[in-house]
Design a protein that fits this description.
11 strands; mainly beta; 123 residues; 4-stranded antiparallel beta sheet; 7-stranded mixed beta sheet
Length: 123
């Protein structure tokens, strides 16, 4: 199995930046495609960004494109989400996800999920 642990969340003013990290442990050879999702109370989980196993392919939600950057370091079993120009509407719990076998996943059908980290953006 693979365990995913997010970190880096916190409180930041609008226009600021945060960098989220997701550390994978366990059978990390079974974690290939990775992604970030977010969720706010009363709303469905929202796709944020995805990255292929080797980092060669990325995808972003329209709401974050140009502001957020997903990256990974396979030697460290880490995936990151650099968030710039943060807006109050970015406030959410951010979740890291990983897939066992797929090189890239379209949608939300991932095998492993982290516990989430809170990001709060104040006006």
């Amino acid at each position: 199995q693979v365990r995913l642990v997010e970190s880096g969340g916190g409180l930041v003013q609008a226009g600021g930046s945060l960098k989220l990290s997701c550390a994978a442990s366990g059978r990390t050879d079974s974690s290939k495609a990775k992604a970030w999702f977010r969720q706010v109370p009363g709303k469905e989980r929202e796709f944020v960004a995805a990255i292929s196993w080797n980092g060669g392919r990325t995808g972003y939600a329209d709401s974050v494109k140009g502001r957020f950057t997903i990256s990974r370091d396979n030697a460290k079993n880490m995936v990151y989400l650099q968030m710039n120009s943060l807006k109050p509407e970015d406030t959410a719990v951010y979740y890291c996800a990983a897939d066992r076998f797929s090189a890239y996943v379209v949608g939300s059908d991932y095998d492993y999920w982290g516990q989430g980290t809170q990001v709060t953006v104040s006006s």
